[in-house]
Design brief:
heterodimer, A: mainly alpha, Cytochrome C Oxidase, Chain A, two-stranded antiparallel sheet, about 70% helix, B: about 290 residues, Cytochrome Bc1 Complex, Chain D, domain 2, globular, binds protoporphyrin IX containing FE
């Protein structure tokens, strides 16, 4: 049978744009980090911390992470289904609509059109754009799967389909709002109900955007890279179904000790602890797939990205459940510990897997040898060190801050005023900025390597890597 | 079987997702914000307060400030009575936040006089050295839009009068945000209830103690100077250069504050520090 003519143009374009939005996210992340130590660098009205921080998180999650998801899913779905994507036109529309949405999001956030709901800040007109975008993507992926030539659906396709359905449900329910003008709306839920809906959304955005899709990439690219299949199909099945079943019970672990009814908090805590099992199911499955292949950690830079990435996923899914325990939450909730958790996930897990996927894809879709493996290694070490400095300094900061907030004198009064605790954070916020600069340096090395590869890299004709797509 | 049938797979995945969703997200609507947690004294926002709330949202104050006090000892001491579900029934959206780069604001209403807020919002660092809160003085240049405000009140179904709407024309966004901040957490009479009656006789433990006076001076600079002035000359609060009170009365004022007068309570500093302040003020008073 002839190899089908896959659409690789769409993969190329999404890679390009996701990297651009990723750079924007990181640079804005650095800006907000510097604003926390140097508040004189707020430039009202558009460039204040309160407006830039949502821009950072939205560019990171919707520009960078979702952009890479679009790129890799379009690549993976065609290979696993052995057919071209269902509609090229719809995919091209989706690409330009994606960029239009991110630009509309960025501008509207700077103008202050903001719902205040974390990871759902976009006001209703941009919300509608996000929905259209996702529907276009969902139709194209699902139709491609339906008309596939390969009977069995591989693990990656399960995670992709779950993410598509999950995001759709979450986004629509949390978006319910009544407009008062083109730029302003009010949530239809109030107070405690609104909080509960928001964190049901918030935590499962983590599940359906920052967990399931990177797992789909991991399950596809790890065996492709090492040449050895995933260790256990059974573990894959069990972890998949228990993961998507359990996640939805846990949102309220963001609201422990708040007025949300106690029984929901208790369920959230219990299910968060249980989540360790399916999360580690994938971690262990990944490790066991490396049996006899561990030398590749040294020889193959791609394996290094993938295995360190899944290791951070493993750490993340141990730390997360710990934070979901009431007593621990009482201590670290609201402190700088939490951003450290987040960035181990976004920089260590999601970004590592994203970088690995792009390194895998670019030589294949451009038919060029990677410009420099040394630079890829340098990239690896810079982002690893940058992220570790980022997270470790803020874990220390968080524990210190929590300790001071709770410190009491023998007579039952508080030891520290709020300001005495707050000024102690400055050195750690500086360290975070330094970690961020190192991370950014790593990403710039990556971008340079990609440009060199695409522009002038050696053609792959003589190499072992097969050129795919356009003949 | 399901591994070969995408439609079946999608149905099963939806069912898995909807189970936890139904129980932890949909079912709570049956009990939350019903009569069971209603608090009579909690009132909807006035047009001016709601305008202020919308400025708070637009400026993303929730990125640095939370608005919910948890029932934990240190937290109740620091911020006040812990938050109740019934206090938030008019909050669309909720603004509990997730990060305390700045302090919690759930019980802010009535803590400071309006004048403190105008000064602090315009320039946080001149009042609180070391703060990293951005300057918001520019808000006072932005007018409010009465027509939009009326539409908001209709959508939210809050009561309002045409006079309240008309008055907005004379106010700016800074007035609105201060009005909003003064409402926060103030609908239940917690402040009065939290005032501890001081039991036992109040005896100054540090009379003439130089270290205590020095510590008191340091505390004064951090906690009192923003309102009573660097040299106790008075600003938002009265001058403190000539205090006609005995030690015990002075202790009580600092400990409990004067809640109707805009003098915050400093009992959470602990009795030792309050006594240090008393000794510092008395020492300066003498010369
Ligand atoms: C150089 C790299 C980065 C730097 C310097 C940086 C910096 C920051 C800073 C300063 C904050 C605010 C923390 C606070 O309020 O205390 C933040 C929040 C956040 N960042 Fe980043 N960031 C970086 C990379 C990323 C990336 C790549 C992503 C996502 C893919 C990301 C996602 C987030 C999220 C989700 C939050 C919200 C945290 C919360 O809600 O508590 N960041 N980041
Ligand atoms: C078993 C898995 C996990 C559990 C149980 C878990 C648990 C938690 C908890 C309890 C919090 C709230 C911390 C607080 O505010 O006190 C949190 C925050 C967060 N986690 Fe995780 N986590 C898990 C995995 C992950 C992964 C894989 C990521 C990927 C990046 C992630 C990203 C985040 C983000 C972005 C937040 C911040 C939400 C906010 O804005 O406050 N988590 N997590």
């Amino acid at each position: 049978m002839d190899t089908p003519q896959y659409n690789t143009d769409i993969v190329r374009s999404f890679i390009l744009w996701s990297v651009i939005w990723g750079l924007v996210a990181i640079v804005v992340g650095l800006v907000v980090s510097v604003q926390m130590t140097n508040p004189e660098l707020n430039f009202p009205p558009y460039f204040t911390f309160g407006r830039l921080r949502p821009l950072h998180t939205n560019a990171g999650i919707y520009g960078w992470a979702v952009g890479v998801i679009f790129a890799t899913f379009y690549y993976i779905v065609q290979r696993l289904c052995k057919v071209r994507i269902w509609s090229d036109k719809l995919a091209t529309f989706q690409l330009w609509f994606f960029n239009a949405t991110i630009i509309a999001a960025a501008i509207s956030l700077l103008l202050g059109f903001n719902t205040s709901k974390e990871y759902h800040e976009l006001e209703w007109p941009v919300d509608i754009m996000v929905v259209v975008l996702w529907v276009a993507f969902a139709i194209n992926i699902i139709m491609t799967i339906i008309k596939r030539q390969e009977e069995q659906m591989y693990i990656s396709l399960w995670y992709m389909m779950a993410a598509i359905i999950g995001v759709a449900i979450l986004y629509l329910v949390n978006a319910a709002e009544v407009p008062v003008s083109l730029f302003k709306s009010y949530s239809i839920y109030a107070g405690t109900n609104d909080a509960n809906v928001q964190w049901w959304f918030g935590h499962n955005a983590v599940a359906m955007v920052l967990t399931a899709p990177p797992l789909a990439m991991f399950y596809y690219f790890l065996p492709k890279t090492t040449g050895v299949p995933i260790y256990s199909h059974k573990i894959s099945i069990i972890s998949f179904w228990s993961l998507i079943f359990m996640y939805l019970w846990t949102g309220t672990h963001h609201l422990l000790w708040t007025p949300v009814p106690d029984w929901i908090q208790t369920l959230a805590m219990a299910f968060s602890l249980m989540l360790i099992a399916p999360s580690w199911g994938s971690v262990i499955n990944g490790y066991l797939s490396m049996k006899g292949q561990w030398h590749q950690m040294r020889d193959n830079y791609l394996v290094k990205f993938l295995i360190i990435g899944i290791t951070f996923y493993g750490l993340q899914t141990l730390q997360g459940p710990m934070q979901a325990i009431r007593s621990f939450s009482a201590f670290i909730h609201y402190t700088d510990w939490v951003p450290a958790h987040i960035h181990m996930g976004t920089m260590g897990w999601v970004s590592m897997i994203a970088f690995a996927s792009i390194y895998y894809l670019v030589p294949r879709i451009y038919g060029k040898e990677l410009y420099s493996i040394q630079l890829a290694n340098l990239h690896f070490w810079l982002i690893l060190i940058g992220q570790l400095i980022w997270s470790i300094s803020l874990w220390i900061a968080g524990v210190l801050q929590a300790g001071m907030w709770n410190a009491m004198n023998p007579d039952g009064s508080l030891t520290y005023t709020f300001m005495e605790t707050m000024v102690e954070m400055y050195p750690y916020w500086w360290a975070r900025t330094i970690g961020g600069v190192i991370f950014l340096a790593g990403v710039l090395v990556f971008v340079f390597n990609l440009i060199k590869t695409i522009r002038g890299g050696e053609s792959l004709v003589s190499s072992a890597v097969p050129v795919e797509g356009r003949a | 079987m399901w591994e070969k049938r995408p439609i079946l797979f999608l149905i099963l995945a939806t069912a898995a997702i909807m189970t936890g969703t139904t129980i932890t997200m949909i079912v709570p609507f049956l009990s939350v914000n019903t009569e069971a947690d209603r608090i009579e004294s909690v009132k909807p926002y006035t047009p001016l307060q709601q305008e202020g709330r919308d400025v708070y949202i637009r400026e993303g104050c929730n990125n640095c400030h939370t608005q919910t006090v948890r029932p934990l000892v240190s937290e109740v001491l620091r911020y006040g009575e812990y938050s109740k579900s019934g206090e938030f029934v008019y909050d669309r959206p909720f603004l509990w936040g997730s990060k305390r780069t700045g302090p919690d604001l759930a019980r802010l209403g009535g803590k400071y006089p309006d004048a403190w807020h105008y000064k602090h919002m315009a320039s946080p660092r001149t009042m609180i050295p070391g703060s990293n809160m951005p300057d918001y003085g520019w808000l006072s240049k932005n007018p409010l839009d009465p027509d939009l405000a009326r539409r908001k009140m209709k959508v939210l179904d809050f009561p309002y009068t045409e006079k309240q709407i008309a008055d907005l024309a004379t106010k700016n966004e800074m007035d609105a945000i201060v009005a909003y901040l003064q409402k926060l957490g103030n609908d239940i009479p917690w402040r009065k209830a939290a005032q501890t009656t001081i039991v036992g006789d109040l005896k100054n433990p540090f009379i003439g103690n130089k270290d205590a006076i020095e510590a008191g001076e340091h505390l004064y600079e951090n906690s009192c100077a923003p309102c009573h002035g660097e040299d106790r000359q008075g600003e938002i609060g009265p001058e403190l250069t000539d205090i006609d009170m005995d030690d015990a009365d002075l202790y009580e004022i600092i400990h409990n504050g004067i809640s109707d007068g805009g003098m915050p309570a400093f009992g959470s500093l602990g009795s030792e520090k309050v006594w240090q302040l008393v000794n510092y003020l008395k020492e300066k008073d003498d010369d």
